[in-house]
Amino acid sequence: xxxxxxxxxxxxxxxxxxxxxxxxxxxxxxxxxxxxxxxxxxxxxxxxxxxxxxxxxxxxxxxxxxxxxxxxxxxxxxxxxxxxxxxxxxxxxxxxxxxxxxxxxxxxxxxxxxxxxxxxxxxxxxxxxxxxxxxxxxxxxxxxxxxxxxxxxxxxxxxxxxxxxxxxxxxxxxxxxxxxxxxxxxxxxxxxxxxxxxxxxxxxxxxxxxxxxxxxxxxxxxxxxxxxxxxxxxxxxxxxxxxxxxxxxxxxxxxxxxxxxxxxxxxxxxxxxxxxxxxxxxxxxxxxxxxxxxxxxxxxxxxxxxxxxxxxxxxxxxxxxxxxxxx
Length: 327
Ligand SMILES: Nc1ncnc2c1ncn2[C@@H]1O[C@H](COP(=O)(O)OP(=O)(O)OP(=O)(O)O)[C@@H](O)[C@H]1O
Ligand SMILES: [Mg+2]
Description:
GO terms for molecular function: ATP binding; ATP hydrolysis activity. Belongs to the ABC transporter superfamily. InterPro entries: AAA+_ATPase (IPR003593), ABC_transporter-like_ATP-bd (IPR003439), ABC_transporter-like_CS (IPR017871), P-loop_NTPase (IPR027417). Helix content is 34%, strand content 26%. It is an alpha/beta fold. It has helices at residues 69-76, 94-104, 120-131, 135-144, 160-172, 190-205, 217-223, 241-248, 265-271, 293-300, 317-326; strands at residues 31-40, 43-53, 58-63, 84-89, 92-93, 105-108, 178-182, 209-213, 226-231, 234-239, 252-258, 278-280, 283-288, 307-313. The protein is built from eleven helices and 14 strands. Helix 3 crosses helix 4, helix 4 crosses helix 5 (160-172) and helix 8 (241-248) crosses helix 11 (317-326). The structure holds adenosine-5'-triphosphate (ATP) and magnesium ion. Magnesium ion binds at residues 69-70, 110, 182.
């Protein structure tokens, strides 16, 4: 990796800590990526990415096919050499502490290849031996990923979802601090997806920081505390759902169920300074700027309309993603 004084990475210099100056209380993030770039010949797959994942966070990478998610993930894992920039895991970089980092990171690749002739048990034992891990822990991880009953079957006979579970088992067997999952729900059935989400939440509760990529917006919305959206190698937006919503200025939908629809509904609403609304049955939907919610609700509830019920719908990741990609 080029060092961080390369002009390509904006002369980034890591702040000094401890006795040498800087803030001695500085928290070391689990993952820090600064100005990371990757060229494949003349093609730039990753462009000046900055990304921080704090300890204990679940962070999701989103983006169309070919956006650069897997390339960035492989750079973070030290499997693809960055053309420029800086990547640190728990304050360590691959140039100096490659082996140490590998002990702290677990990885489920996009496509995992196993030896078809080995059983699940033999496969996991193989990874365990490499990492100096006990038999008891092998049993524990196979149990966690739901493969205990199939552990003596050959992996060649496994369904895609079972292979994915085995991939997860090898990723967590050494209890990594940072777990990186590249499209972990691919190939899982709906129950498998629910189970995987529960596993991710559990590992996270036990202290594992998680970075994952996905095309499934519902999974991302449910699991991730922060989201990074990539497009053509660039990180085009980052933040929590609320932060992304704020950035885009997306409205909140207020849905009001009325007992009766007055003939002069439009006039009444315009009188309350509500100019655009949709009516479906007896439900009025109003797109309301986030900071005007209370004003609109107060106006609607002033007694002129017979309100039965009222709901707020914040924009989901679906509309946030579509809006960001259209910017
Ligand atoms: N080894 C390589 N040599 C040349 N180009 C590559 C290589 N690996 C990836 N690329 C290119 O880099 C770009 C980013 O690919 P990447 O696999 O990182 O995308 P992705 O966001 O993971 O996509 P997907 O959602 O389909 O998995 C693509 O245009 C891809 O063709
Ligand atoms: Mg990918």
